[in-house]
Design goal:
Helix content: over 70%
Shape: globular
Radius of gyration: 21 Å
Number of helices: 22
Strand content: under 5%
Order of helices and strands: HHHHHHHHHHHHHHHHHHHHHH
Structural class: mainly alpha
Mean pLDDT: 81
Distance between the termini: 53 Å
Number of domains: 1
């Protein structure tokens, strides 16, 4: 909670004289150290792999100052997790959300997968991994392994693909660092087209018995909540533009304000939502530790000129200009299969390909990065999305990573990158 408050403080007053930031970094560091002794074996393996990446790329012991600066870098993400927990706990009590859950639970066998994917896409665009808890609650009780696996995969596809256009993902923040705010926002606009293509094609191919009538019934699950989602997106995007905030900062500031308004109208829900948020944070400790370590490794890679120079000099990056927009998402999707989180792969790729040596449209570069993040988180054993989905739907992470979604992710990365490449060639005519 201290780190959450410090994260908000860093957004409002980002100054070296803000002692609250130092307190937040210290408390969050203590939390990570204490939590290391309590995480699952799978999480330990992922962290050891991240440490191996650090050793291979940086190969030096960080100073105390370096560690503290990396703590400042990830402090903003310490504010994101509890914010999303608060939003998820509140959303589950909204009457229109409950109506959507009921409609989902009533979908017939031959169209439930499309319903979960479409709903996860739009809800996930705002509450990210928080959507999985809502969708898990919508499953009819007593369903078997095959049903839960199908629903979990569909939910992952829906939520992950919204990263191509939603400003509520960490991916958007990372992209802004290298590409710039204006190009980043235009990149999101391109993502609306990419996600529409992916959603239509994947839903139709994976649900062969889906008719127009059944598809409309799947879409009807969104009807009760579409106005609420639009209001949230408008408030967050509007705040980011008006106050010059990053999308992530806008989420951390705006969403608690909106929840506070809900509390004023429904004070009887304050206690229950607070307890649910705390429970969410307790269950998310493994996820917080993994994403924090991944971000720290990414920070050190980004801020090590020697490492970046060595990586850029690798022959693998000596590729023709036209292939870059394919190379980025395909590489991010491939390395995610062996546990390298997109935050690390995107850091290396963006720092390399945003150099003056490549003549590529900024918005298209941003979308290639978001496409890679989408496909990477869809099938990475180190991804917060897969870990959360695995826990809530009670399906082993390995089954979600190396099943249908891994093939779908690679296909989307390849064909999506090809579309962006063709678009880039047209912009140069």
């Amino acid at each position: 909670m201290i780190s959450w408050f410090a994260s908000v403080s860093s957004i409002i007053w980002n100054s070296e004289s803000n002692f609250i930031i130092n307190i937040g970094v210290t408390s969050f560091s203590i939390f990570l150290i204490i939590t290391l002794s309590r995480i699952k074996l799978q999480s330990v393996i992922i962290i050891l792999f991240l440490l191996l990446i650090y050793i291979l790329t940086i190969n030096k012991i960080p100073t105390t100052s370096d560690l503290f600066n990396s703590g400042k870098y990830i402090l903003i993400f310490a504010g994101l997790i509890p914010t999303m927990g608060l939003v998820k706990s509140t959303a589950q009590r909204l009457p229109n959300v409950k109506r959507s859950q009921i409609l989902l639970s009533e979908l017939p066998k031959d169209s439930f997968s499309s319903g979960f994917q479409i709903t996860a896409h739009f809800f996930g665009a705002v509450i990210n991994t928080g959507v999985f808890a809502m969708l898990a609650a919508a499953m009819p009780p007593g369903r078997g392994y095959a049903y839960r696996k199908t629903v979990a995969e569909a939910s992952l596809r829906g939520m992950s693909s919204s990263a191509t256009w939603s400003p509520f993902f960490v991916a958007f923040v990372v992209g802004q660092i290298y590409i710039g705010a204006t190009s980043a926002w235009f990149g999101l606009a391109i993502g609306l087209i990419m996600s529409l293509i992916f959603s239509i094609v994947s839903v139709l191919l994976l649900n062969r018995e889906l008719t127009r009538k059944k598809f409309k019934k799947s879409l009807a699950c969104l009807q009760p909540v579409i106005s609420t989602l639009l209001i949230i997106i408008l408030f967050v995007v509007g705040s980011a533009i008006v106050f010059g905030l990053t999308a992530l900062s806008a989420v951390i500031i705006v969403m608690p304000i909106m929840v506070s308004y809900y509390f004023l109208i429904n004070p009887k829900h304050i206690y229950a939502i607070s307890i649910d948020t705390l429970n969410y944070l307790e269950k998310s400790t493994d996820d917080v530790v993994i994403i924090s370590f991944a971000m720290i490794v990414g920070y050190f890679v980004t801020n090590s000129p020697d490492t970046l120079t060595a990586l850029r000099d690798l022959s693998i990056f000596t590729i023709p200009n036209w292939s870059v927009l394919i190379f980025i998402p395909v590489t991010m999707a491939l390395v995610s299969l062996i546990g390298i989180h997109p935050v690390i792969s995107s850091t290396v790729l963006l720092s390399t390909f945003t150099s003056a040596n490549f003549d590529i449209s900024g918005p298209l570069m941003m979308q290639a990065h978001l496409l890679g993040w989408c496909t990477g988180t869809m099938s990475s054993i180190a991804s917060l999305s897969v870990i959360s989905c695995s826990t809530l739907f009670q399906i082993p992470s390995s089954k979600l990573c190396y099943g249908n979604n891994s093939f779908i992710a690679m296909t989307f990365a390849l064909f999506g990158g090809t579309i962006l490449t063709i678009a880039n060639e047209f912009t140069r005519i």
